[in-house]
UniProtKB/TrEMBL annotation:
UniProt-listed Pfam families: MFS_1 (PF07690)
The protein's name in its UniProt record: Multidrug effflux MFS transporter
CDD domains: MFS_MdfA_MDR_like
Top-level taxonomy: Bacteria, Pseudomonadati, Bacteroidota, Cytophagia, Cytophagales
Species: Hymenobacter bucti
PANTHER family attached to this UniProt entry: MAJOR FACILITATOR SUPERFAMILY, POLYAMINE TRANSPORTER 2-RELATED
Transmembrane segments: 45-64, 76-94, 100-121, 133-157, 163-183, 213-233, 248-267, 279-297, 303-322, 343-363, 369-388
Membrane topology category: Multi-pass membrane protein
Superkingdom of this protein's organism: Bacteria
Primary localization class, coarse: membrane
Length: 409
């Protein structure tokens, strides 16, 4: 594979993976405008974000078997077309209930892109390169939180919040064309795979019986759900509590995403010296400490805007180490049913994320506590899950703490 071909594959797969995050991040600065236009509250608007997470979670279970049965591209075409249609529908809504429903449909479409992209990493690249490829995809995905909220803030200020969905629909259409024209596939559809509920559930159960999958898929999902709490709660924290406007919020969100992107790229270098298992363990420990400090200082009321940004930056940096490694470790045991494994991993991750997002919305008390409490609890739970499961997946030799800490910093 030529270098140009390699880069083009990464860009297409990364953009497909980023479609869902971009759909989330770009409209976040519009929460106050949407609430005003639809005569509702910002907390109710946040439910349209929660419905998006639920749609992604449910949709991944749908597309996994379809990707294995019919190949990667046909279900991807279907999902992208559905995404474009739902984006157009969001332009015409006049109630928050309609927006919540259409965001759910939009998510069902977008998750086809994410599931197909992850499965195609397993199809197109050697298993030993998976963690590095996932890190590169995270670099592309990381552009989303840098560009999307900032761009969204300016689009909303100039044209109103509905213009965001014009841009999202256009992005979906461009991806549909790029997939048809430039994205290869070497996967041979498994025509023997039944789409009846019982065989599908049996196939998912076979995936769940793999100890390495359950260990790292659950650890990664619980850890990553803290990100969804942050995304769901950050408009309230920055725009309502710290009183920044939509444009400044976009720049803050973009700056914080540098922690996620930067760490994911440092991770690629660390993989030359350390195993993925080792990096996950140390990064989760750092994540727990960071979120507990954030929770304690927030509870005491002594943390200002600068301190909040600094600790969130470190938290996102920890996720930049854990996420690509837990994804690679989860999918490593699979070849034939990589699509189903990818879908199940994504469904677990998004399901956890939806719960975290809903939790922030339900416990909205005009403070940052619901957001940071969920981040701390999920980080601690993820570390406990990993510690409890290490013996189930065999001996994992941890590097000396001092050496790893030095590498991570």
């Amino acid at each position: 594979m030529t270098r140009l071909r390699y880069i083009s594959l990464i860009l297409i797969l990364g953009t497909l993976t980023a479609l869902g995050p971009f759909s989330i991040d770009m409209y976040l600065p519009g929460f106050p405008a949407i609430a005003l236009d639809l005569h509702t509250t910002a907390a109710r608007v946040a439910l349209s974000l929660s419905s998006f997470f639920v749609g992604i979670s449910a949709g991944q279970l749908l597309y996994g078997p379809l990707l294995d049965r019919f190949g990667r591209k046909p279900p991807l075409y279907l999902g992208l077309a559905l995404y474009v249609g739902a984006s157009v529908g969001c332009l015409a809504v006049h109630s928050i209930e309609a927006l919540i429903v259409l965001r759910f449909v939009q998510a069902i479409g977008s998750c086809a892109a994410a599931v197909a992209a992850v499965a195609m990493v397993r199809d197109l690249f050697p298993v030993q390169d998976s963690a590095k490829v996932f890190a590169l995809l995270m670099l592309v995905v990381g552009v989303s939180p840098m560009v999307a909220p900032t761009l969204g803030g300016y689009v909303i200020a100039a044209f109103g919040w509905r213009a965001v969905f014009v841009a999202l629909g256009g992005l979906g259409a461009v991806l549909l064309l790029a997939t048809a024209r430039w994205l290869p596939t070497n996967y041979v559809p498994d025509t023997a795979l039944s789409l009846k509920p019982r065989p599908i559930l049996t196939n998912f159960w076979a995936v769940l019986r793999e100890p390495q999958f359950t260990t790292y898929a659950l650890t990664g999902a619980v850890s990553f759900s803290g990100l969804f709490a942050y995304v769901s709660g950050s408009p309230l924290v920055f725009m309502d509590i710290y009183h920044v406007d939509s444009k400044v919020y976009g720049w803050i969100f973009a700056f914080l995403s540098i922690g996620l992107i930067g760490a994911s790229q440092v991770n690629s270098q660390l993989l030359r010296r350390y195993q993925s298992e080792q990096i996950v363990f140390v990064a989760l420990g750092c994540q727990v400490v960071t979120t507990l400090v954030l929770l304690g200082l927030t509870s005491a009321g002594v943390l200002g805007l600068g301190g909040t940004i600094a600790l969130l930056f470190v938290f996102l940096g920890c996720l930049g180490f854990t996420s690509p490694n837990t994804s690679a470790l989860s999918l490593a045991p699979f070849t034939r049913n990589a699509g189903s494994a990818s879908a199940l991993m994504g469904a677990i991750q998004m399901g956890m994320g939806a719960l975290a997002s809903v939790g922030v919305s339900l416990f909205n008390a005009h403070t940052a506590l619901p957001m940071v409490a969920i981040m701390a609890v999920t980080s601690l739970l993820a570390l406990l899950l990993l510690l409890a499961s290490r013996q189930r997946i065999g001996a994992i030799v941890a590097a000396p703490a001092g050496a790893l800490e030095g590498g991570l910093h």
